[in-house]
Amino acid sequence: MTDQEKLDLLAKFSAAWGQADLDGLMALMTDDCVYAASVGPEPGTTYRGKEEVRRGLAEIIEYESGGEQRDGRKWISGDYVFSEWAYDDIAEDGTVTDIRGIDIFHFVDGKLALKDAYRKTKM
């Protein structure tokens, strides 16, 4: 894939994420995909294969519903893209928590094989 094709695929992924379009997200991923979430007991939770990854993506999209997402800078290194993001978690009382993170994406055969998420929050 060219660098532009990688960025175009990530733009589709981001749009599908923003619309909670699980079918659209999964269409962009390999059959043996891995999603390493930034929350869970490992720390994080690792989902493997399309069925588990779909479940993991559904969980985090539900967890983040009601907030505001922003894309950030991206860096490309071979078959990997490092992508900054930010998310404002808005509590019921209106309190906003700024959450920032970076995802590592690995591309294989024109699709996403890995989404590895890291986040930091204000405590």
List keywords for this structure.
123 residues; alpha+beta; Nuclear Transport Factor 2, Chain: A; 6-stranded mixed sheet; 6 strands; 46% strand
Question: Could you characterize what this model shows?
Answer:
The structure is a single chain. With 123 residues, this protein is an alpha+beta fold. The protein has a single domain (3-121), classed as Nuclear Transport Factor 2, Chain: A, CATH 3.10.450.50. Helix content is 30%, strand content 46%. The chain has three helices and six strands. The chain has helices at residues 3-18, 22-27, 49-63, and strands at residues 29-36, 46-48, 68-77, 80-90, 96-108, 111-121. A six-stranded mixed sheet has the order 2-1-6-5-4-3. β3 and β4 form a beta hairpin. The radius of gyration is 14 Å and the shape is globular.
Topology overview:
Layout: H1 3-18, H2 22-27, E1 29-36, E2 46-48, H3 49-63, E3 68-77, E4 80-90, E5 96-108, E6 111-121
Q: How much helix, percentage-wise, in residues? A: 25-40%
Unreliable spans are none
The overall average pLDDT, rounded, is 92
CATH architecture: Roll
Calculate Rg over CA atoms.
14 Å
User: In what range is the share of β-strand residues?
Assistant: over 45%
Counting copies of identical and different chains, the oligomeric state is single chain
Number of helices: 3
Number of domains: 1
Distance between the termini: 40 Å
Number of strands: 6
Sheet with the most strands?
Answer: 6 strands, mixed
By CATH reckoning, the class would read Alpha Beta
| Secondary-structure content class | alpha+beta
Indicate the overall shape: globular
CATH topology call? Nuclear Transport Factor 2, Chain: A
Order of helices and strands: HHEEHEEEE
Strand order of the largest sheet: 2-1-6-5-4-3
